[in-house]
């Protein structure tokens, strides 16, 4: 009999008792889906470093179990900094209507809680089973308790960005949040979405969000994510996106939080003229670990993808970038570009990079590149020789390093907000 990690065994021990309280437990198709996820997770356990896709990220600090930290002195709900009329808030993994503002959403846009949809019998929002051999997604399928469901009708455009906040506060007794988010955009629809994942430092918990996105013909989704979890938290996120003909998916992930974080994205380009843009920046220090793993699959001819990720690492921080572009046979006239760059502010910081191209077609245009290094000492000396003190000179060079990836954000308000966040992080450099 296979010996499971302590945390996996904890989930197995509690599944029978937990499932009767999970949303949609009375719906046969949902119950069967949970059983399938549970069986897969039981067979696989949490991935170890012998699994190729996880060899740079060691989950041992998580799988040994999570002991909640003492309640923080200030456990009030953090105020939202991003200004928008459309706000949906989840506290400790559950939808909070009192902290949400959804009354100004235009006609043709439905935003609801997954728990409410499942309890109402609307299991169709879950779509197809996508966990395959991904145990963390399988665990989410077994224990998913809430999340948001965004449905946008054909031709509808959201007038302002939608902010969805996931806030983790100490004191609830629950140390894991298995969120399942669903996004469906109709033909020609356009939406801007900002996700925020926020926690109180010192509060230990495990966030396991899974997001399933389907973009119909000509739809556009600008999907931004700010991950600022507690410094004691674990954040393992999976985002899957299907793009139809002419659809555009723009993703930008800004990571500053969590003790250990992994942001895994898969784009499946299923139509000609579709574009997948996966960009991001991770700013980490101390003993933080941040892993970005992407897979872009070009499944038909004549479409494009682009990836640019930049990291700034201080202290003993560890960064990971694994990016793969896959072009199947006969997917001709495809363009795929990928770039990863990391700036190490300490000789104890490190980054592991694994860019990949898997090409089975001959009429394609692809590139990939990866680099890491320290601040340019000559440039630093030059600025200091012009009367700029060392700390200010360092910040100028770091700003310049980040500037071009932030410019990839097409929404002006989000770009300004993320620039403010990064500037605040750099004040402590």
Could you provide a short overview of the structure?
21% of the residues lie in helices and 37% in strands. It is built from 8 helices and 21 strands. It has helices at 6-19, 28-44, 60-63, 114-119, 135-143, 377-385, 390-406, 412-426, and strands at residues 86-91, 94-95, 109-113, 148-152, 162-168, 176-177, 180-185, 190-199, 206-207, 210-215, 220-228, 234-243, 248-255, 260-269, 275-284, 289-298, 304-313, 318-327, 334-344, 350-359, 364-373.
Give the key terms.
8 helices; alpha/beta; ten-stranded mixed sheet; 21% helix; SUF_FeS_clus_asmbl_SufBD_sf; Fe-S cluster assembly protein SufD; 429 residues; eleven-stranded mixed sheet; 37% strand
Low-confidence stretches are none
Roughly how many Å apart are the termini?
Answer: 49 Å
Q: Provide the gyration radius in Å.
A: 21 Å
| Average predicted confidence as pLDDT | 93
Question: What profile does the largest beta sheet have?
Answer: 11 strands, mixed
What overall form do the CA principal axes indicate?
Answer: globular
Record field, number of beta strands: 21
- Name the structural class: alpha/beta
- SSE order: HHHEEEHHEEEEEEEEEEEEEEEEEEHHH
Number of domains: 2
Helix content: 10-25%
Number of helices: 8
Note the beta-strand portion.
Answer: 35-45%
Domain SUF system FeS cluster assembly SufBD core: 175-401
InterPro entries: Fe-S_cluster_assembly_SufBD (IPR055346), SUF_FeS_clus_asmbl_SufBD_core (IPR000825), SUF_FeS_clus_asmbl_SufBD_sf (IPR037284), SUF_FeS_clus_asmbl_SufD (IPR011542), SufBD_N (IPR045595)
Protein name: Fe-S cluster assembly protein SufD
Family: Belongs to the iron-sulfur cluster assembly SufBD family.
């Amino acid at each position: 009999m296979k010996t499971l990690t302590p945390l996996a065994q904890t989930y197995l021990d509690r599944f029978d008792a937990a499932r009767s309280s999970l949303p949609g437990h009375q719906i046969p198709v949902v119950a069967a889906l949970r059983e399938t996820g549970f069986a897969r997770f039981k067979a696989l356990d949490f991935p170890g470093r012998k699994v190729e896709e996880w060899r740079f990220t060691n989950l041992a600090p998580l799988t040994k179990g999570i002991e909640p930290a003492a309640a923080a002195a200030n456990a009030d709900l953090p105020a939202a900094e991003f200004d928008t009329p459309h706000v949906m808030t989840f506290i400790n993994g559950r939808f909070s209507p009192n902290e949400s503002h959804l009354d100004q959403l235009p006609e043709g846009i439905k935003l609801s809680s997954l728990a409410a949809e499942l309890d109402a019998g609307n299991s169709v929002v879950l779509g197809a089973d996508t966990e395959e051999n991904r145990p963390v997604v399988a665990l989410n399928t077994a224990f998913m308790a809430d999340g948001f469901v965004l449905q946008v009708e054909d031709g509808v455009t959201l007038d302002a960005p939608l902010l969805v906040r996931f806030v983790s506060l100490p004191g609830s007794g629950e140390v894991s949040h298995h969120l399942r988010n669903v996004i469906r955009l109709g033909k020609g629809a356009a939406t801007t979405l900002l996700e925020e994942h926020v926690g109180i430092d010192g509060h230990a918990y495990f966030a396991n969000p899974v997001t399933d996105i389907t973009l119909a013909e000509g739809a556009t989704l600008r999907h931004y994510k700010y991950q600022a979890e507690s410094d004691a938290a674990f954040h393992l996120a999976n985002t899957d996106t299907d793009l139809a003909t002419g659809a555009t998916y723009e993703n930008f992930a800004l990571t500053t939080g969590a003790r250990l974080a992994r942001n895994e994205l898969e784009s499946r380009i299923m139509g000609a003229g579709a574009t997948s843009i996966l960009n991001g920046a991770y700013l980490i220090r101390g003993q933080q670990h941040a892993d970005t793993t992407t897979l872009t699959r070009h499944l038909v001819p004549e479409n494009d993808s682009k990836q640019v990720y930049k990291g700034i690492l201080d202290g003993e921080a560890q960064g990971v970038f694994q990016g793969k572009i896959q072009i199947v046979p006969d997917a001709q006239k495809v363009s795929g570009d990928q770039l990863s760059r990391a700036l190490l502010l300490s000789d104890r910081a490190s980054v592991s990079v694994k860019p990949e191209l898997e090409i089975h077609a001959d009429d394609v245009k692809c590139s990939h590149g990866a680099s890491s290094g320290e601040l340019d000492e000559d440039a630093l000396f030059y600025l200091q020789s012009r009367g700029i003190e060392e700390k200010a000179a360092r910040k100028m060079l770091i700003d310049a390093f980040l500037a071009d990836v932030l410019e990839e954000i097409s929404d002006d308000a989000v770009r300004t907000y993320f620039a403010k966040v990064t500037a605040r992080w750099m004040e402590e450099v």
